[in-house]
Amino acid sequence: METVTESIYDHPRYYDLVFGTDCASELNFICDVKEKYLGSKSIRMFEPACGTGRLLFGLAKRGFEVEGIDLNEKAVAFSNQRFQRHGLEPVARVADMTRFRAQRKWDLAFNTINSFRHLTTAESAVDHLKCMADQTKRGGLYLIGLHLTPTTGEPLDGESWSARRGHLSVLTQMWTVERNPAKRLERFGMKFDVYTPTKLLRIEDELTMRSYTPQQFSSLLGKAGGWEVVETYDFAYNIKRPIQVDSSTEDVVYVLRKKG
Ligand SMILES: C[S@@+](CC[C@H](N)C(=O)[O-])C[C@H]1O[C@@H](n2cnc3c(N)ncnc32)[C@H](O)[C@@H]1O
Question: Which atom of ligand 1 lies closest to the CA of 26?
């Protein structure tokens, strides 16, 4: 088996298979949030760190006007090619989520599965939240889904899963390499074993993310200003079951509303 040390984000086809095969519950949840808090009016959506555009594409197919940005040009190209293949205008472009201008303001933005935690400093997280608030319409929403660091109980330490599409299958393992609560950084190791009829490839990758306890996330919102928490959910994505965040909460989706 050939082994390479590269970012999984530079392999959008494999990324999209690993993270994109079952996004129905996320898509349904985004639509449910829209109905519950914004009603039935037609709205514009935005995704910072959109990656391969798996969610943007699903929402575009449901008739929403969408736009996205991502730092990784291969992911952006993958997203735009998928839109074009399906006769849709491409909507993604390369930009940094801490400083960017969207084409137009939006009503609802979403940032699920920890992408927000790629912002590894307090300054970049504050810049991002301010940039998002500036371009959200009055009364608009921002959904941030992330894993918190529980302050009671042991956090989950590793997971593995597999996904298959046609002749391509990818076996994924992810584990914690280091937690540094003082620096608020967590390092994760990742291994992707890619199987095709003609190739066996192992991609080894490492990710560093900023960690948040519930209090640290609240304090960040206070520093950034501009947002209030409307409600919180977990990764079950059940609109009928909001959760109360407490010291043992691990996965959370904050529904934020632009203030004022
Ligand atoms: C876990 S992936 C999520 C992609 C997509 N949101 C999804 O749900 O599949 C995280 C993405 O964040 C992007 N990213 C990391 N830092 C970024 C930044 N500063 N600005 C824009 N995108 C960023 C990466 O390139 C990667 O595509």
Answer: 8
Render pLDDT for 170-213 as a digit per residue (tens, 0 to 9): 999 999 999 999 999 999 999 999 999 999 999 999 999 999 99
Strand order in 2-5's β-sheet? 2-5, 200-210, 185-195, 168-180, 158-165
Pocket test for ligand 1, best of 15, 30, 45, 71 (most atoms within 8 A of CB): 71
Whole-number Å distance, alpha carbon 116 to ligand 1 midpoint, is: 8
Measured in angstroms, how far is the CA atom of residue 37 from the centroid of ligand 1? Answer: 26
AA letter at 141: L
Q: Which atom belonging to ligand 1 lies closest to the Cα atom of 15?
A: 9
Domains defined for the chain, CATH in brackets: 9-149+212-258 (3.40.50.150), 158-210 (2.20.25.110)
